[in-house]
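Here is one chain, start to finish.
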Amino acid sequence: MTPDQMRDASLLELFRLEAEAQTQVLNAGLLVLERNPTQADQLEACMRAAHSLKGAARIVDLEAGVRVAHVMEDLLEAARQGRVLLQPDNIDALLQGSDLLLRVGSDGNWADNDGREAIEALIARLQGGPAAVPPPVLAPQSSVPVAPTAPVAEPPRHEPVPREPEASPGENGAEARDRVLRVSAERLDHLLDISSKSLVEFQRIKPLNAALHRLKRVQASASRALDVARESVLDGSLDPQAQAMLGEARQLLGECQQMLAGYMADFDEFGWQGGQRAQLLYDAALASRMRPFADVLAGQARMVRDLGRSLGKPVRLDVSGENTQVDRDVLERLEAPLTHLLRNAVDHGIESPQVRQRLGKPEEGVIRLHVRHHAGMLLLELADDGAGVDLERLRDAVVARGFAGPDTAQRMTEDELLAFLFLPGFSMRDKVTEVSGRGVGLDAVQHMMRQLRGGVRMEQRCGQGATFHLEVPLTLSVVRSLVVEVGGEAYAFPLAHIERMTRVQHEDIVQLEGRQHFWHEGRHVGLVSASQLLQCAEGKRDETGIPVVLISERDTSYGVAVERFIGERTLVVMPLDPRLGKVQDLSAGALLDDGRPVLILDVEDLLRSVGKLLGSGRLERVDRSSRQGAGAQRKRVLVVDDSLTVRELERKLLTSRGYEVAVAVDGMDGWNALRSEQFDLLITDIDMPRMDGIELVTLVRRDNRLQSLPVMVVSYKDREEDRRRGLDAGADYYLAKASFHDEALLDAVVMLIGESQG
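Its structure:
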């Protein structure tokens, strides 16, 4: 490439940067002018932007750009002078001109070839010619994977590339501080990686400092011991040489103490100063990756406006908190789900102007986006003032698509119904359009939120609109976590994915349908063991209760029992080696303050593992160790059956295996026995006089003292509805007498309470 060609390429690159910046000014200003065509400051700003683009295009010899910018400037000037009142068609043409100028900046040859017709038609329209004009062909953009293409030309979403301005001789200090440099993302990532590791490594000074303090205490003890030894031999029992050596040792030890005290003071100062600087270095490196949320909004207001016009709905986007700082990676990955939610709000949420007028609403719909920081997370609230969700129509769609029967659908709560909107392939549309109807939207939004270690939930008020609440970390480089101990190793639960941490007492654990639960805030929560999920040996727990971490997905919650809470930590994420592939239930690694490794759990994967474990029927009892440890005595079983033959058969079988067995002749007799004695297991029939087995199990489950007692039903009734009736009442196991044999009963007893110790 010749020097002249290099100079031309450099100038074109500068024009492209100029076009990106100025078209953003034009787009923002024109959207304001559409609502208020006489707003002087916006007219002035748009006219200046068009004028700047005209001058820049002239410098790089882009004649098409000069012509388009010139007619845009003329129209804006006429509006500024009051000779023209800008109409929606004028705004459409000016926005199209903004797109075309950006296209010319990206590919100057396009204007002389494929784009010639579009340019001439647009110039005619801007000058008052025919209104019908084909939209200009924009530069290829990366497609948004969650939403189909809109029927209107969307504004390009180039990320603005900062450039270093020329510093004038009279540049003051503030302007100098505002100068920016182009730095590759890889270098920033490398800087953050180094600074984060430096911060973690520096934390290892703390245990070293503690060790030095222990050494100082040992030296003080040694000095006191020498003083005692010296005083005990002052009577002259030692020869002078030994006494001299003792005195010299005491003197050397004193000098060591003084030296250690001085070094420790210097070390304390170094540790504090170094720790501060390491933290500042990390904070600065992290801040260099942060960008204002406004960067992801470039073109979104324009997209909302254009999509609304294509659907015959005037809509505007109001944003607050656009200067909120967010990590670059998070920001880039938020664009796709945010775009879909905005399109969803325009298409599904906002009503037509005629409907809004009948309802007493302004004809123009409003979508509000509020962005803020909270507890180390980025919170987004996206609300529209549309119709909300028609719950009856949604209920009908659930039934029509076979997700639930009519009776079940009628019993569903609002939250349960809204959860269907996030299922793959679910859509409220009967026909597929260019905007919606394929059912890929909210499911993809939820999937991407989980990839960001965040979440999304929806609220709606019928006739008043819907609100989406999105929560993601401010950065993917660090994660605030609850660190726990499982099997003697450290694991971390990202705080964004846990609902609560608590302690559960053994007596508060109840058995429902063969699974362990505990009562939390008015609902039963299933309890599973982290050691079983992670397939590691179970360690020793505190006697003060079982530490439990509550994790949830939609309306399903589980309590994961761990061995110990280590505490809340901010961890620097270290990705696992890609050669390992996807490691089940794990997402990354990190280092604790003392240098110990910790594995960060993938909570979404963990929830799937819980589901598989429940489906397999191999769920272990969380409190089994405490029960077995306390039970050196024989385990007691109560058999309740009105048949003498069955009672005796079961009693002999269980007694032969070392269990202590008591019998009751009916449900009332069994209930009296349970209230007066302690048992480890209840085995009951269903059909009995005075009180049947279902009533007995129901009473057991309602009694606070007996809630955790395992219950087995043994009955002649072998129909599925009978089995379901017994399990719904609270039985842990249902065994049909028709298929009864010795080993089946004994295996079930061992599964429920283990072998007898007798």
